[in-house]
Amino acid sequence: MRRIAIPIRCIMAGTTLYLLVAAAAAAPGNHPGGDVVETITSQGTGWVCSTWGYNTPKLVYDGKRSYAIGLVDGPGGRVAQLYARGPAGWTAGATFSPVHQPATILLDDHGCINVFSSDLTTGAHHWRSATAGDVNNFATIPIPDARKFRYGYLGVGTDGHRLALAGLDSNYSMWLAVKPSFEAAWNSPCLVARGQQQVQPWDAPVYPIVMPDAGGVHIIYSNCPDGGIHNTYDKVQYLYFDNATRQVTTREIVAQGPLGTITFGLDALFADDGTVYALYFTGLYVYGEKPSGDAQPHGVYCAVRLAPGKWRTTKVTDSTGAAQLFRDPDGTLHVLQSTPTGIVGFSSTDGGRSWKPAKRQVVSPAVGAFLYVVKANSGSVIDRTVRAIHSHLLPEAVTHGNQRHALEFITITLPPAQ
Fold it and tell me: Could you tell me which of 78, 113, 82, 83 has the C-alpha nearest to residue 97?
């Protein structure tokens, strides 16, 4: 079996930018509308930024404090570092290892902080705080057959009671484990999407966005058909895993583009009315035959699942920059997109049928990569403030040749749509 190498990279502003490109960050502090841009740490490892893998939570909010997880270089190698935001700013808590790719984080129904990582030898790891809000004391929670997740690309989510964990094995097949309650142990993992690299185009289901509900788990993910050669993505897929039968009962294609033209799942959201929203971009040409006139024009799109097998798709913006979804308590949908001049906003008040730019379209001056916006599947409290996190590469003048990433916290008070 050939191992495929899917690169760690940044997609923003209509171009694929590798993380060797430095971004000029906004000055920390307060900005228009009472918004905040704060540096959590400037010690992020130069290997990859902490918010790579923004398919899965990197930031949570319990109604009082925000908690973030970063990837830093420790004395013995890379570690996941937990941070908490208090009245005096951001402070560091516990560190976690082993870790290969950046870690991910959830809050459970007891308010405890749950941290997940994977490494190529032992697989997935789960730690849970001793009490709600405790950032220093953690217990290890066993995951059965943890090596099923050893190739990483983790995605985690909760519906407020159950936890779910998805990730890849060494054949790039995706596995899913469910923890039914706080007291219950993890169920053994189930195969939910099989990878194959014998015949091109390959099947490599990556970047799962995990959204449990009372009966099972919704997952939105992307496919890499040519890893190690061109490293593109050709489709966005949806599956539903039924907890009772422990089987995938639904598989659907949300969007598919021509081979060699990137179609990639940016984000997804499961609303409290049962609606699944998927955010993706398409039309970024890399190689092969140029897309025909029948291909979907380049841009970011929001797809809404109306019924089994039926998705309604609407363009949000012509830009193919990395973007995230947010849903207000009143049901208004927002898309936040990274650009070279800051984060821009778009809103929909009709369930994703139409989108308009925010009146103050640059909703935050913060500039960075791999934006993650807090959503309900992280176990977080959702109010009218957007809480987000992203990374940027520090200039060599600051790091003196020792490449590092900064991790930034952002709050945004969204203006109404035009």
Answer: 78
In terms of Cβ atoms closer than 10 Å to its own Cβ (0-12, 13-18, 19+), residue 28 is middle
Which tokens go with 174? Answer: 């995706």
Rounded distance between C-alpha atoms, residue 235 and residue 223, angstroms = 6
Q: What's the CA gap between 310 and 37, in Å, rounded?
A: 39
CA distance 281 to 299: 5
Name the residue among 114, 143, 145 with its Cα closest to residue 127.
Answer: 114
Tell me how long the chain is: 418
Token reading at 63: 């109604």
- Residue of 154, 88, 159, 87 lying closest to 125 (CA atoms): 154
List all residues 6 or more positions away from 227 whose beta carbon is below 8 Å from its beta carbon: 4, 5, 6, 172, 202, 204
Q: At 405, which helix (H) or strand (E)?
A: strand 404-413
State pLDDT tens for residues 267-310: 999 999 999 999 999 999 999 888 777 777 899 999 999 999 99
Distinct helix (H) and strand (E) counts, the chain = 1, 31
* Whole-structure pTM value: 0.92
What letter does residue 173 receive in the DSSP assignment? Answer: -
- Structure tokens given for 195: 């990878």
Domains identified in the chain and CATH numbers: 10-413 (2.130.10.150)
**What are the pLDDT digits (tens) for 165-182?**
999 999 999 999 999 999
Other C-beta atoms within 10 Å of 287: how many?
Answer: 12
Tell me how far apart the alpha carbons of residues 332 and 345 are, in angstroms, rounded to a whole number: 13
DSSP 401: T
Please list, in sequence order, all residues whose beta carbon lies within 8 angstroms of the beta carbon of residue 245, skipping any fewer than 6 positions away: none
In whole angstroms, what is the distance from residue 388 CA to residue 408 CA?
A: 8
